[in-house]
Amino acid sequence: MNPFWDNIFRRSGYEQSLAYFLSSMPMFKMLDKRELAFLENIVHVRNYEGDETVFHEGDIGSGMYSIRSGQVQIYKLDEQGQETEQAILKTGDFFGEVALTASRPRCASARTTEPTVLVGLFRSDMLEAVRRHPAPSAKIMLGLNRVVCDRLLQCSLQLEELNKQLLNNREQQTDA
Asked: How distant is the alpha carbon of residue 78 from its chain centre?
């Protein structure tokens, strides 16, 4: 291809930018470019090695993480100290979002399974942003609220389905 045309059709650097990555996250989809630039200034990017702990179950949560690249395992320890995998999260997934609004113990542990880049948004930074820049902060918090509500609804539907299965199993046992 002619170098002139190659330059015209080459992707811009925006697709590789942190703002573009953030815009792909469900909770930040409604932000315009100015608001994304604001968000870009309050998040923290961190590189993790493989098999590195992000946080432990029981730690007081301080913020949420989005996976820019790599993979994270979410797991719990049972009474015997054995790990039970809860989820494997990949690029574009996020976790720990409840910690942005509630200072509560983490209900599971998170560990990278390969070299991983995480984008952290922490409660202390968000509180400061709300104080100094209420309009974009409110839009960010509304997006986060929408995501938490969606996850809560999904859990509620799954719990309802499990209860139906349990009731069916009990009915089958009493019929036998």
From this structure: 24
